[in-house]
Write a structure and sequence with these properties.
By secondary structure, the protein is mostly helical. 78% of the residues lie in helices and 0% in strands.
Length: 292
């Protein structure tokens, strides 16, 4: 009987995370048209933080100084990634922001090699290259100039890569559930501080069902589920493979951008999506074929 290894199960779970993240690009873009950016992030992450604390309250007694320190570092890096990405959505299409965030697939192997001394396999390197080429086809608009939204998203991609590499290091020595609690709580605190310093109010002036649904979807699925899975699954896979899997996020961002926001892409962009899937296939299936 065919049995999936822990690594493949971890990779499948990480892929499920990209579906939720991809679906939230258009949701967040619509939501920040209704209220200030950091006010939205504050509410989203406080809901997620409270849920995590309630879920893992029985573990809180095991918190220690080292775990809190590493969780704070992860939270700060992740906050910077979200901040740059969410502000970028004010200037660029959700699908394009999703594509450029995928640049972390190039930054992650480099950081992994230098910081973790982990050189990716040949299949992962080829997969990352294919993912990068496909992403370029999806996002390239015919000129070499970058918009403000593009630049903000590239900075976001760098912080995403740093977060992936640090998660690989910290998840192997700490309780991943507690690590997630600290990480998301720091996200909530920083979002609130920035909001109070730069925006006039925290809660939306007018509540509606779209905003309520947006908070619940982004908090429960795109935050609680996503980061519990990421912090746990990365114990069993590599940073480079994680980055290659996460590059599927822009593909799902394009799908949901079309379904929910009517954003239509070019034929070249769809070909790029196929190449990105080929890169993921290479990274996942290549090592198994060689073993056989």
């Amino acid at each position: 009987m065919f049995k999936l290894s822990k690594e493949y199960i971890a990779d499948l779970l990480l892929l499920s995370v990209t579906i939720f993240w991809g679906s939230t690009f258009i949701i967040v873009k619509e939501s920040i048209n209704m209220m200030p950016t950091f006010a939205f992030l504050s509410i989203r992450f406080w809901i997620a933080s409270i849920l995590l604390i309630l879920m893992f309250s029985y573990k809180l007694k095991h918190l220690n100084r080292e775990l809190i320190r590493d969780g704070v570092i992860l939270g700060i890096v992740l906050f910077l990634a979200y901040a740059f990405q969410t502000v970028a959505l004010e200037y660029e299409k959700a699908s394009i922001v999703g594509f450029l965030t995928g640049l972390n697939v190039i930054f992650t192997p480099i950081l992994s090699a230098f910081l973790l001394k982990k050189v990716p396999s040949v299949f992962s390197q080829v997969g990352a290259l294919l993912a990068f080429v496909g992403m370029g086809m999806m996002s390239f608009k015919g000129g070499l100039s970058l918009s403000k939204g593009d630049l903000l998203t590239i900075i976001c991609a760098i912080f995403v890569a740093i977060q992936i590499v640090l998660t690989d290091r910290y998840s192997r020595k700490h309780d991943t559930y507690l690590l997630t609690v600290v990480e998301i709580t720091i996200l909530a605190i920083l979002s609130t501080l920035v909001n109070l310093a730069s925006e006039p109010y925290l809660f939306p002036k007018k509540w509606n069902m779209y905003l309520i649904g947006s908070f619940l979807i982004t908090a429960i699925f795109a935050t609680v589920y996503a980061f519990v899975i990421q912090n746990t699954a990365q114990k069993y896979t590599t940073p480079t493979k994680t980055a290659i899997i996460f590059v599927m996020e822009p593909v799902f961002a394009a799908i949901f951008g079309y379904l929910l926001g009517g954003e239509v892409l070019s034929l070249r962009a769809y070909i790029g999506a196929v190449i990105m899937f080929a890169g993921l296939f290479m990274a996942e299936v290549g090592p198994a074929l060689v073993k056989r």
